[in-house]
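Quality-control log, excerpt.
Job 1 of 2 completed; input and output follow.
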Amino acid sequence: MSTKPQDSSDQTENSTIAVESPTPLASKKYFKRDVIANVVVVALILLTMEVWSKFTPEYIMPSVGKSSNYVVRIIGEDAIHILFTLFRLLLAVGFSLLVGSFIGAIMGMLKNVGPFIKSAVIIDTGVPALSWMLFAVFWFKEPEMRVFFIMAMILIPFYALNVYDAIRALPTDLVEVVEIFRPSRWQVLRLLILPHVIPYILMTTKAIIGYATRMMVFAELVSVSTGMGARMGLAQNNFEMDGVIAWTVLLVILNLSVQALVALAEKHLLKWRPEVSVR
């Protein structure tokens, strides 16, 4: 018994994924949904803290009101430490972005030295963050250099490897078309590679900014006497749990603010790329 083969056009039609640009109404709906979810989660956390504080001493879990008062006190008296941490974080991320992207470009474009640099970068990723912190304490006398060194050694490999992967992901057809015009290496970098790797760099920044903030707190805790990490350590030494919670809340706000700046930069730099949604 023979069966009639399915028409190829039907197969193509069934396997097609429709892609459409999200409407402003849909984007507004998603934004409203995310805001409601965030409000509900924060409310549940605050409720849990308040209930917990009723059954434990203050050095275990203070009330929400007491922690809120500490936040207000920090903003009024110790806001300079927030600025210290923010400046160090932006400086470290910016430096790592530039140096890591440059290293990644060398890894992807120079076949003779690229494998050796890649090997060094991969070895760097295997060194624990704690080791870099201890190395910095022994190697550098200046506290600020310690923090900068720790953050750079932790963050640079992320950018280097992602830019390297971005260059490897360049479409072969596009590379061959560009090579027809016999461009210089600088023209290849400026006209072909740079536009292709910018989304990868922004994606890397969005992915590591939270991790970088946490590492900055650890670096400040072991290396300097200023900044949010150092103040959290001081609060812990004084058994001020409300202080630890207050500094943690401010760190979360700082992290979200920096992520919002990165998202704004991404929207501006990639405005040429249309946003799509799959249905």
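Job 2 of 2 completed; input and output follow.
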Amino acid sequence: MQKPYEILEGVIPKDYLEKAQKATLELKNWLLDNALIGKSSNLGTGRYWRGIETASRISPVLHKLYTSDFMKGIVSKYMSEAYYYNDQAVVKMPKEPFAFPSHYDNQYAPTGLHQINFMWILDDITPESGDFKIEGTSVRLKAGDILVLDGNTVHCSGKNVTDKPRRAWACVYTTTDPNYLDFFSGRFI
């Protein structure tokens, strides 16, 4: 990837957007209804947090989208060889105390594993709904956009202080087969 990030405006087909909005909210409600935050998990890093790692292992709808020809078309423009790694449903419920401090995605991966995040923006992201900053600068993102984020790019997001959920879905692929913890493995492209 040449730049630290790129915004693909309005590229998610309406029916895919609606399916992802519904599926991610269902997963978040499942997480909250079952009081799973902080509990052990057999997915990803082994612990449930406010987002849902390897969400497409739980949701057949998200699995179909994560492995779709639509995503292959987008990912292939950035990666000549890509492997499945992780997808995370990141839903900030109304007034939920959930913010991400500054980080870069590759800091959580094994040395040498480079990832690119193709984040589906499922609701408009505003300062009130959990402002998204890349390298310290606020970025306006609209429902239907895909944010392509290099794994070494520092980013963060704030709390959602609105009365509506704020949904995003991170579809992450790597340049080499991860074979790491209980994340995905296998060639995508």
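Post-run check on job 2. The longest helix spans residues 14-33.
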